UniProtKB/TrEMBL annotation:
Protein name, UniProt field: M28 family metallopeptidase
Matching Gene3D superfamilies: 3.50.30.30, Zn peptidases
Compositionally biased residues, Low complexity: 20-38
Keyword field: Aminopeptidase, Hydrolase, Metal-binding, Protease, Signal, Zinc
Pfam families listed in its UniProt record: Peptidase_M28
UniProt KW Signal keyword: yes
InterPro entries assigned: M28_fam, PA_dom_sf, Peptidase_M28
Residues in Peptidase M28 domain copies: 316-521
Length: 566
């Protein structure tokens, strides 16, 4: 995802963007939770059966896992376009249902070792995948660093609003920077820093690579630590092997670091020892305000990456229902159509069907589109249905739309996003990722009350979910965005059952070939969520005002600047 310097300085809240002052009782705690299990389906065309039918189709083997740049993309894009056309929805302003998203596929082959020289006791050899991973966003057949001086820059964060600058007084031009995972509040022991356990954007690896490039670093290596990262080294190994999609840039990635990568905690400790320093002492210092970056005792790093490059365009798919009174104002419903395609076989299955992630969101998108077309009168504002590409590769499609909007951002009222809806029945909760950020919380609360549900803020803000789906791309450019779904409180079986179901999906099916459509699923929860977002969109469509970011939101200034522009 391509991010500007000015906007980055505004971003200070990750993983739910949840205000510290939010309490469970304020958000509608369990004491007020409804107990009935009756679900009434109004005659609006949104049904569990229709959502199931669409999910089954999009998650079938025929679509080959819906990976961009494959036959799976061609089939998916054609199917979604056909469905939008059959519903009578209009194409975009250019007369097509597409927005081309220029991407480059980089298949990197790192050197088998990373050499760290200049230390006490002789050079250190780190082995690819076992000790480190490396890659590049530079569009070159090969890149290399040779004896690049190494420095330690804490968390690699420049956050003026938190009075935190890990690069203060440090010249990293041409050097390789080593940084810690996450941010000082989220990963450290003092939760008074930043947003505490709720990760900020500064904790995201994407930000760390971007900031290092802005500082002029030649390389950036993140130290992986399982506990604060919340995932094992194996996730890093799998995430950075094989072909990766990146946005095509005018400079072909020349402004990015030559080498980006990760190293294990054990490798980092060996490196600090070789530099005559203590990792534990450096870690403790990095978690205190006023931290001063340091050189790593004359250490220098050497490694390389060879690349295969392929440039082409993927597609966002969009359709429009023109408004009746405020036709030049837009409400966007978004969901990503892509998944992981075909990979190594697991238990004899190599197709990553992505039924929950995110055929379910696309099915909900189609069901909402169907509901709008069945209204007796067109909504006041125009409704845009946007199925984006490249979410699994880093929100590429939604980020491209946000940077190249088909409809003006200052005329875009809100984005309502759908991603990986729960497949285990009606829910009592409506969990809002990013609760406390915008007035869309209030719209969500009112719509939840219609379904006898209650609001929950993100229950795991430390995971950074707010920055991991397509709503973030819209929030980033100032458009109020909502990502809300039932997740933590089953209406029939309670919280423990919901937790078991969520944990089972994450452990067994998330990003695995086993994420397949199951006819035994209870999809009434998906129906609930789709209807709730439909109702929010209906209300927004008939208003003349725009929902606002709440005071203290890091996106508020960007929106106000956008609305004030000519």
């Amino acid at each position: 995802m391509r991010i500007s310097v000015s906007c980055l300085l505004v971003l200070a809240a990750l993983a739910g963007c949840q205000s510290k002052s939010t309490s469970s009782s304020e958000a509608g705690g369990t004491a007020a939770a409804p107990t009935d299990t009756t679900i009434v389906s109004p005659p609006d065309g949104i049904t569990a059966a229709y959502i199931g039918e669409q999910t089954k189709i999009l998650a079938s083997d025929e679509f080959q896992g819906r990976k961009p740049f494959t036959v799976g993309e061609e089939k998916t894009v054609a199917y979604l376009t056909d469905q939008f056309r059959k519903l009578g929805l209009k194409p975009g302003p250019d007369g097509t249902y597409f927005q081309n998203v220029p991407l480059v596929e980089i298949t990197g082959q790192p050197a088998p070792t990373m050499q760290i020289s200049g230390g006490k006791g002789g050079p250190i050899t780190l082995n690819y995948k076992t000790d480190y991973v490396a890659f590049t966003e530079q569009e070159k057949p090969a890149v290399a660093l040779q004896n690049s001086e190494m420095v330690f820059a804490g968390y690699g964060v420049v956050a003026p609003e938190y009075k935190w600058n890990d690069y203060a007084g440090l010249d990293v031009k041409g050097k390789t920077v080593v940084v810690l995972v996450n941010d000082p509040g989220n990963a450290g022991n003092d939760t008074t820093h930043f947003k505490g356990r709720a990760m900020t954007y500064y904790g995201r690896w994407t930000y760390k690579y971007e900031e290092a490039a802005r500082q002029g670093a030649a390389g950036l290596i993140i130290v992986h630590d399982t506990e604060p990262a919340a995932y094992p080294w194996s996730v890093v190994q799998s995430s950075y092997s094989g072909a990766k999609l990146r946005p095509q840039r005018a400079d072909k990635g020349a402004s990015k670091c030559v080498i980006e990568g990760w190293m294990t905690l054990d490798a980092a400790k060996k490196m600090f020892t070789a530099a005559g320093q203590s990792y534990e002492e450096a870690y403790a210092a990095a978690n205190k305000p006023g931290f001063k970056a340091r050189t790593l005792g004359g250490l220098a790093m050497s490694t390389s990456v060879k690349n295969k490059l392929r440039r082409t365009a993927s597609k966002n798919v969009l359709a429009v229902l023109p408004g009746s009174t405020r036709v030049d104002e837009y409400i966007i419903y978004s969901a990503h159509w892509d998944h992981l395609g075909i990979g190594a076989a697991i238990n004899g299955d190599s197709i990553h069907n992505g039924a929950v992630d995110n055929a379910s969101g696309c099915a909900a998108l189609l069901s909402i589109a169907k509901a709008y077309t069945q209204l007796p009168k067109a909504p006041g504002r125009s409704i845009v249905f946007l199925a984006v590409t490249g979410e699994e590769q880093g929100l590429l499609g939604s980020a491209y739309y946000a940077a190249h909007p088909v409809f003006p951002l200052k005329k875009t009222v809100a984005d309502l996003n759908m991603d990986a809806l729960a497949a285990f029945g009606p829910m009592r909760d409506l969990t809002v990722i990013g609760y406390g950020q915008s007035e869309l919380d209030d719209y969500a609360r009112d719509a939840a009350k219609e379904q006898n549900r209650y609001i929950l803020p993100d229950q795991h803000p430390e995971k950074g979910s707010f920055y991991r789906s397509d709503h973030f791309s819209f929030a980033f450019v100032g458009v109020p965005a909502l990502d809300a779904k039932g997740a933590f409180d089953s209406r029939a079986r309670g919280k423990e059952y919901a937790a078991q179901q969520m944990q089972a999906y994450t452990a067994k099916n998330y990003h695995q070939p086993s994420d397949e459509y199951d006819p035994k699923w209870d999809l009434r929860g998906m129906e609930q969520d789709a209807r709730l977002l439909f109702r929010i969109g209906q209300r927004l469509a008939e208003e003349s005002t725009f929902p606002k970011w709440k005071p203290g939101s890091e996106f508020k200034a960007t929106r106000e600047k956008s609305l004030a522009s000519k």
